[in-house]
Amino acid sequence: MHIADLAEGERARVVAIAAPSPELEAKLREIGFCEGDEVQLLTRGPLGGQPLAVRLNRRVIAMRKNEAAAVQVEALT
Questions:
Q1: Does the reported pTM lie above 0.85?
Q2: Tell me, which fold does domain 3-75 have in CATH?
Q3: Residue (of 24, 63, 60) closest to 40 by Cα position
Q4: pLDDT digit string (tens) for 18-70?
Q5: Are strands 50-56 and 59-63 parallel, antiparallel or unpaired?
Q6: Contact in structure between 32 and 63 (CB atoms under 8 Å)
Q7: What's the alpha-carbon Rg for the chain, to the nearest Å?
Q8: Partners of 41 in the beta sheet?
Q9: How far, in Å, CA of 67 to CA of 15, rounded?
Q10: Three-state secondary structure of 19-65
């Protein structure tokens, strides 16, 4: 499952960053994504569901779907 697959309001834990390019992986890690972090999908944008508003460690980050698809997560129960 990826961040882009979460329902609005759903929380999950990052299990891996599997970006298709080293540049995207580096960008996501610079933003602060790390294995074990908790994320929450807050909302989706009105046009095509982009951008995604994601809470990461008390910050809100706007992401494109392709960026969110590079972060693998597991849902929290």
A1: yes
A2: SH3 type barrels. (2.30.30)
A3: 60
A4: 989 999 999 999 999 999 999 999 999 988 888 999 999 899 999 999 999 99
A5: antiparallel
A6: no
A7: 11
A8: 54
A9: 15
A10: CCCHHHHHHHHHHCCCCCCEEEEEEEEEECCEEEEEEECCEEEEECH
